[in-house]
Structure formats: structure tokens, C-alpha cells
Design a protein that fits this description.
The complex is a heterodimer of chains A (about 250) and B (about 290). Chain A contains 7 helices and 13 strands. With about 250 residues, chain A is an alpha/beta fold. Chain A has a single domain, classed as Rossmann fold (3-Layer(aba) Sandwich), CATH 3.40.50. In chain A, the strands form 2 sheets. A 9-stranded mixed sheet of chain A has the order 9-8-7-10-6-1-4-5-11, with helices on both faces. Chain A has a two-stranded antiparallel ribbon with strand order 2-3. In chain A, β4, α2 and β5 form a beta-alpha-beta unit. Chain A is globular, with a radius of gyration of 21 Å. The mean pLDDT of chain A is about 95. With about 290 residues, chain B is α/β, with parallel strands linked by helices. Helices cover about 25% and strands about 25% of the residues of chain B. Chain B has a 5-stranded parallel sheet. Chain B has a 3-stranded parallel sheet with strand order 1-2-9, covered by helices on one side. In chain B, α2 packs across α3 and α4 packs parallel to α7. The two termini of chain B are about 40 Å apart. The chains are: A alpha/beta (about 250), B alpha/beta (about 290). At the A-B interface, α3, α4, β7, β8 and β9 of A face α2, α3, β4, β6 and β7 of B. Chain A: This is Electron transfer flavoprotein beta subunit protein. Chain B: It comes from Dioscorea alata (Purple yam).
Chain lengths: ~250, ~290
């Protein structure tokens, strides 16, 4: 069985982002970029499943401009077998629905038994793509996964998910889509030997035309602004003072 | 045209209050296959109803259910949804947080009906209604499920849900929340926080670090990928104030932070900060706080 993992290149999670003064977006020049943390967890889970003998190959895919190749190299350095880069440079950010259609087209070519995505990208925080591609493929979905157990014989995935009420367990027939939550695993660091090996692994470039996917644009970003700033707070010196302020000043007690 | 769509499981609980507040009618879909909130069946149900009735808007709250189902339904209907809406500026103009709430994106939906969205419930106050509000019963109709069938049904099976039984108010809409971070050091110490919550009539929250360490279950996690809360009073004990945690509570009316480290980033968002050891502060608060009314 093949596992396909979709990965996204985003501003590094530790960077303090700045909104551009012209409100057109977030400052991206000279800013550290990394693989989306949820996507890293996805790659790690795919590798573990392969290492456990339940899959033969891990294919990493990404949609975006030329620099996506960096993210795919990281996936290869972690241990993915090969990568596919769907080039979409000139269009700007591609909406989740279009990414889902692209992934569906790739799935129809590659025929993986499992498609893993991060639950959300930390830039747009959409949390949509996995669910969408599952719907388009008519595959079952296990989103926000905190545990995945694959039964190779039965071709079934038991997925424990983090939901508002606690932990929900689903049983999914493969092929299926899984989106990762933070506690699914701790991703490995790419070791130097693996980084070197990755240089000779293949990243196949594919165009949107070849995939015959229509890019829909039904959402337009009008502006990006800063959230309202909170008024500066005060440091109190004792519990007594705190209780007093909460009761008499803030009036929340 | 407002309607509410519900499965059999929700029906008995929700219909009376729903019809008083919003709905012109309520649609009920009754089928064994809808017994559990699976995305595969629910997305198909939404598609079925939409294809028959043609709504202009389809919405859900940004709960784990809404987030799981709505995007799948949107893909079936071939439209881009807007998720986690915090403001509706115009009929097709929405504001949503990005980068863990460190920026706000204003987006315009330019596609055909339906316009689909999930909304962040903490950003929309519940409208009050007086006893005089007309609360005529609204019609309830059954969704015709004769064509409700798909190859995916049966490919996903609900096995179980483990949740913590609690008398505490629901974290998502409690008026007061007390949160503990990794500095609580153990699950046992969280009991101390629970005593404080009890006294304040509060819900208990936790940071990702505390959940990762196994002190409390995942449903208590507040943050960018956990629960988003906006209580009147949010008290953070031993919480450093990472960006991802702030994303989950920055809309709280009043924020209190108690931390031994005066440089903890949490003090930058706190309205009241106390640089002290939480293990001294909590017992003192338990002693000095008035009893919950």
C-alpha cells in the first residue's frame, strides 16, 4: 500500500508575524519558512506506518511556487521515498477547494491506500482541505486524529479523534483520509545522512494543466488587519489587591 | 428563509428553544444511519437538502462537529466555505482570524449559492429574548431520505466516545474559566485548580503542555487548535502565554495571570498580573474569595 502525505510551506510557527501597513497581507519577505507542524506530524505518521510494515512507499506532495521544493526536501530527508510538486506559482495562494481537487487528481494517478494531511495550516487556520478531498473522493475521513492503528489484513484504520466532548474512536475502511492533530506523534528530526540521501531522491514536477484541474476563485481577500489591541494591564502586588480589583474595578466577581 | 436541520439524536433536546429563537421551520432527518455524527452521512444529508431546497446560506458553529462536516459538504456542493467567521460585515463579506488570531482576514464570497460558513460562537453574543417573544410552534418536516444512500455509508463506523464526566460548566460557554499550565506539575495538583473553579462556578481549562503531560484530558485544552473561549473572566495559573494559547483566550473580557516568572509573555495580555507562586496564590484565593452565589 502507498501512503500519500500532503505538506504545506508556511511561516515558521515561532515567528511573530507582522501585518503589512497597506493591509494587503502579512509580511513574508525575509521571514523564516518551514513545513506546517501538522504536516510534519503527517509525514511522521506515514513513516511509522511504513516502518511497521503496513505500507511500502511514502509519497510527499505539495502545491505551490518553486520554493515548495524546500518543504518536499524536508519530507524526503525525514524519510519519504519520493515527492511530487504541483507547480502553481503565478496564481498566488490556492484555495483549499482547489488544493483538494489537485490532490484528488494525484490520488487518481497514484492510487494510495491512505491520504494524510495536517488538520490545519497555521497560516490560514482553515481546517478544510482534508475533509474536502475526502468528500470529492467519496472516501471515509478521520480528522483531528490523535491515534491511528492500521490493520493491514483487514485494510481498516482505527482512528481516535480529539473532539469537543473528548476522544471519539472511528473505524474506517481503506482507502481513507486522515488529518493529524498535535498529539498524534512527535516528528523525527532529519539526520544528516538522511538529508544527504534526500538530495538524490526524486521530486517530480507536475503542472495544473497536466492534472486537468480547474482552479476556482470564489473567495477574495479584501484586506488583512491587526486584531484590536487590548488595553495595557497592571501588575498587582497581592491576592487581596487582585480580589479587590476583580470585584470593584473589573466587576467580574 | 431560516430553517434548522437536525438529526434524530438532537431532536428531543433542541427543538423547543430553536423554534423560539430563530427558525421558521425545522427539518428532521430520521434514520439509523444518522445515529452518530459522522461526516460522511451528514455532508451527504446537507447536499441532499440543499439540492432540493436551494438555500442561500448554510452555517454551522465552529465546533468539532461543524469543522468536520461543513467543509466536506462544501466540496460536495463545489463551493469554498468560510470557516471560523468572527464577524459578518455584509451579506457576503466576512472576517476570520488567521495566524492564530494575530491577524484578521476580511474575505468576500463571490460564488453562487449556497454561501457556506462555520462561525466562532464566542464572537456572536446570544440574543436575549423576553417571555413576550412570540414562540409559536414552528412546523417540523421530515427530510425525504428515500434517495439517501451512498457507497461511503458503512465505510466509517462510530465506535465510542470517552469523555470526562463533570459537574463543571461547559468550557466553551462558561462565564469564568480557570486554566492551568505545565507549572501545575501533576494531575493531582489540578484538583487544587478544580477547587478554585468550584468556588468561582468556573470551568477548568488547560494549556497544550498540561494536556501533553497527561495532567488533564484533551477536551480541556484552550488554544489555536483546542477550544476557543471568551469568558467574562479568564484566570491563567502557571501559563507562560505562548502565541498558540493566546489564540484561544485573547477575546476574554478580563484576563488574570499568575506566574512566578515576571517575563512570561502572558503578562502582556493580562489585565491583572500577579507575579507569585500559584501554589501560594490558589490556597490564599480559596480562603479569601467570597462563596459562589
Amino acid at each position: 500500500m502507498k501512503i500519500m502525505v500532503a505538506v504545506k510551506r508556511v511561516i515558521d510557527y515561532a515567528v511573530k508575524i507582522r501585518v503589512k501597513s497597506d493591509k494587503s497581507g502579512v509580511e513574508m519577505s525575509n521571514v523564516k519558512m518551514s513545513m506546517n507542524p501538522f504536516c510534519e506530524i503527517g509525514v511522521e505518521e506515514a513513516l511509522r506506518i511504513r516502518e511497521a510494515g503496513a505500507a511500502s512507499e511514502v509519497v510527499a506532495v505539495s502545491v505551490g511556487p518553486a520554493q515548495c521544493a524546500d518543504t518536499l526536501r524536508t519530507a524526503l530527508a525525514m524519510g519519504a521515498d519520493r515527492a511530487i510538486h504541483v507547480v502553481s506559482g503565478s496564481l498566488g495562494p490556492v484555495l483549499p477547494l482547489s488544493v483538494a481537487k489537485i490532490l484528488k487528481a494525484l490520488v487518481e494517478i497514484e492510487r494510495p491506500g491512505l491520504l494524510i494531511l495536517g488538520k490545519q495550516a497555521i497560516d490560514d487556520d482553515c481546517n478544510q482541505t482534508g475533509q474536502m478531498v475526502a468528500g470529492l473522493l467519496k472516501w471515509p475521513q478521520g480528522t483531528f486524529a490523535s491515534k491511528v492503528l492500521l490493520d493491514k489484513e483487514k485494510q481498516v484504520a482505527t482512528v481516535e479523534r480529539e473532539v469537543d466532548g473528548g476522544l471519539e474512536t472511528l473505524s474506517l475502511d481503506l482507502p481513507a483520509v486522515i488529518t493529524t492533530d498535535l498529539r498524534l506523534n512527535q516528528p523525527r528530526y532529519a539526520t544528516l545522512p538522511n538529508i544527504m540521501k534526500a538530495k538524490s531522491k526524486v521530486i517530480k514536477k507536475v503542472t495544473l494543466e497536466e492534472l486537468n484541474v480547474e482552479i476556482k476563485s470564489d473567495l477574495e481577500v479584501v484586506q488583512v488587519t491587526e486584531p484590536p489591541k487590548r488595553k495595557a494591564g497592571v501588575i498587582v502586588s497581592s491576592v487581596d489587591e487582585l480580589i479587590d480589583k476583580l470585584k470593584n474595578e473589573a466587576r467580574v466577581l | 428563509m431560516a430553517s434548522a436541520l437536525m438529526s434524530r439524536a438532537l431532536r428531543n433536546r433542541s427543538i423547543p428553544s430553536f423554534s423560539a429563537i430563530v427558525s421558521r421551520f425545522v427539518l428532521v432527518a430520521e434514520a439509523d444511519i444518522l445515529k452518530h455524527p459522522l461526516a460522511e452521512t451528514w455532508a451527504k444529508l446537507i447536499q441532499l437538502v440543499q439540492q432540493k431546497d436551494g438555500y442561500s446560506y448554510i452555517m454551522a458553529s465552529s465546533s468539532s462537529f461543524g469543522k468536520n462536516v461543513l467543509p466536506r459538504a462544501a466540496a460536495l456542493l463545489d463551493v469554498s466555505p468560510v470557516t471560523d467567521v468572527v464577524e459578518i460585515s455584509e451579506p457576503r463579506l466576512f472576517v476570520r482570524p488567521i495566524y492564530a488570531g494575530n491577524a484578521l482576514s476580511t474575505v468576500r464570497y463571490t460564488g453562487p449559492d449556497p454561501c457556506m460558513m462555520t462561525i466562532r460562537s464566542t464572537s456572536f453574543p446570544i440574543s436575549t429574548f423576553s417571555k413576550d417573544t412570540k414562540s409559536d410552534a414552528v412546523p417540523i418536516s421530515q427530510v425525504d431520505l428515500s434517495t439517501f444512500n451512498e457507497e461511503t455509508f458503512g465505510k466509517s463506523r462510530w465506535l465510542n466516545l470517552t469523555s470526562q464526566d463533570s459537574e463543571r460548566p461547559d468550557l466553551g460557554n462558561a462565564r469564568v474559566v480557570v486554566t492551568g499550565g505545565r507549572a501545575l506539575k501533576s494531575a493531582d495538583n489540578f484538583k487544587l485548580l478544580e477547587k478554585l473553579a468550584e468556588k468561582l462556578g468556573a470551568a477548568v481549562g488547560a494549556t497544550r503542555a498540561a494536556v501533553d503531560a497527561g495532567f488533564v484530558p484533551n477536551e480541556l485544552q484552550v488554544g489555536q487548535t483546542g477550544k476557543i473561549v471568551a469568558p467574562d473572566l479568564y484566570m491563567a495559573f502557571g501559563v507562560s502565554g505562548a502565541i498558540q494559547h493566546l489564540a484561544g483566550m485573547r477575546d476574554s473580557k478580563v484576563i488574570v495571570a499568575v506566574n512566578k516568572d515576571p517575563d512570561a509573555p502572558i503578562f502582556q495580555v493580562a489585565d491583572y498580573g500577579l507575579v507569585a507562586d500559584l501554589f501560594d496564590v490558589i490556597p490564599e484565593m480559596l480562603e479569601k474569595l467570597p462563596e459562589k452565589k
